[in-house]
Amino acid sequence: MLSAVKRVPVGRVTTYGEVARLAGRPRAARAVGNILRQARLPDLPYHRVIAAGGALGGYSSLALKRSLLSAEGIVVSGTRVRNFAAVRWP
Question: With a threshold of 0.85, does the pTM exceed it?
Answer without folding.
Answer: yes
